[in-house]
Amino acid sequence: MTDTAERVPARRLLALAVPALGVLAAEPLYVLVDTAVVGHLGAVPLAGLALGGTLFTIVSRQLTFLSYGTTARTARLHGAGRRADAVSEGVQATWLAVAVGVVVLALAQLLAAPVAQLLAGPGPIAEAASNWLRIALLGAPMVLVALAGHGWMRGVQDTVRPLRYVLAGNGVSAVLCPLLVYPLGWGLEGSALANVVGQTVAAGLFLRALAVERVSLKPDLAKMRAQLGMGSDLMLRTLAFQACFLSATAVAARTGAETAAAHQIVWELWMFLSLVLDSLAIAAQSLVGAALGRESARQAKGIARQVTWYGLGFGALLGVLFAALSGVLPLAFTLDPGVLATIPHAWWFFVALQPIAGIVFALDGVFLGAGDAAYLRTATMLSAAIGYLPMIWLSLAFGWGLVGIWSGLSLFMLGRMLTLLLRARSGRWVVVGVTRTGTEAAVT
After folding, report:
1. What residues contact residue 28 under an 8 Å CB cut-off, 6+ apart?
2. Which of 13, 77, 209, 285 is most buried, with most CB under 10 Å away?
């Protein structure tokens, strides 16, 4: 049983998690607006946006270490009462974001066309995608600056201002997008430019937040190298996710149109609920990092137990809700009889996995807050290599369809849950102090 002193009030958790959920949901909602605007241009521009947007998302997700890694380092310093040092981590993450963003921008101008042609084949769709991507990735430095901003602000337990900044940026983009696409006649390129303007607004607000903190804004190469060390583990972990998810989509598409459509519907719902559950993980990351920074191993463990139970309960509620909606919700996405008949082959996996996902995402947040990125990397890659990837490709070979694909996801999530629970029980993730280094002993 968790002692009251080891817990944090549910209100405090929600105060961090709810604004974080708003930030996580803002981008998909804007994408829907963007898609609706571009959709009226015709099939080719919409297909170009879909391909270009997918590539943009892959690049940005691969660099989320600027957010999650920064939160882990900043939260410890904040917990130790060293706010200025915590914000300084944000300064260095921002410098790193600018440097990486410039490299991404330059590579985009060189590689956008050949990568688009590789995926879509030569033709108008590849051309539309590469044109959109070249313009959209002009905003890469701004996107990464915003990621760094989210990281340090979450670390000092401020999730409200980032929500305001994201809403401001997306609001500007949402207003500009239809104006640039239609009255000004810039078409798909207008959509990309609206993205860049909105991202610039958001990045500017994050930079202003750093400036008013009155800390040194000079680059510190040693701190940036340390951030990259943790970042490499998180990038490998993200790469494992992307390999699995892209493989699942590819196998579903090769199985048939109805299978691909059904998988896409259930998969989008899975991703949406992942965002909901991930908001709890962000709160856990901030609170656990702060507890370890003030050298309270007992409270860090208590928070870990607390958020794990919350994650299980929240996931179970979502599972019950979507089980009840099984006969209704798919009709909001399609009326095709073949697709509707195929959806249940994935739907019940999706429902059953929600409690497991609740535990997994909660513990992800705990270990990210503890800076235990190397273990998360290994656990994710191992679960992918043993469970998800073999099952996906066996599904293609033996015609198992959605049952095989979602069985693979189930093995992946079960593997992650098992490895995370074992790590939580071992206590080896609990390393107190303002930094996590090999010279510090684990507190068990």
Report:
1. 272, 275
2. 285
Q: Would 224 be classed as within a structural domain?
A: no
Long-range contacts of residues 98-103, Cβ cutoff 8 Å, at least 24 apart: 98/141, 98/144, 98/145, 100/63, 100/66, 100/144, 101/140, 101/141, 101/142, 101/143, 101/144, 101/145, 102/140, 102/141
Question: Which residue, among 324, 383, 287, 400, has the nearest Cα to 6 in the 3D structure?
Answer: 287
Q: Among 173, 196, 219, give the residue marking a domain's end.
A: 219
Per 3-state DSSP, the chain is made up of helix, strand and coil in percentages (nearest 5) of 85, 0, 15
d(CA 175, CA 198): 10
**Number of other CB atoms surrounding residue 12 within 10 Å:** 13
For residue 6, being part of any structural domain is answered with: no
CB atoms within 10 A of CB 102: 13
Contact between 375 and 297 (Cβ < 8 Å):
no
CA angle 356, 360, 363 (to 5 degrees): 140
Pairwise CA distance, residues 94 & 87, whole Å: 11
Mean pLDDT, residues 411-432? 94
Can you tell me the distance from the alpha carbon of 259 to that of 37, in angstroms, rounded to the nearest whole number? 28
Condensed to tens digits (0 to 9), the pLDDT of residues 157-199 reads 999 999 999 999 999 999 999 999 988 889 989 999 999 999 9
- Structure pTM? 0.86
- Residues 257, 220: Cα–Cα separation, whole Å: 52
- Domain count along the chain: 2
Question: Are 243 and 270 members of one domain?
Answer: yes
In one-letter notation, the amino acid at residue 176 is L
Choose among 232, 287, 235: nearest CA to 71: 287
- 360 within domain boundaries: yes
pLDDT in tens, 378-405: 999 999 999 888 998 898 888 898 899 9
Q: What is the pLDDT of residues 255-311, one digit of tens each?
A: 887 888 888 788 888 988 888 899 999 999 999 999 999 999 999 999 999 999 999
Q: How far, in Å, CA of 268 to CA of 66, rounded? A: 25
Report d(CA 68, CA 51) in Å as an integer.
Answer: 26
Say which amino acid occupies 331. L
436 three-state secondary structure: coil
Domain that holds residue 406: 232-444
Considering the domain architecture, whether residues 174 and 245 belong to the same structural domain is answered as no
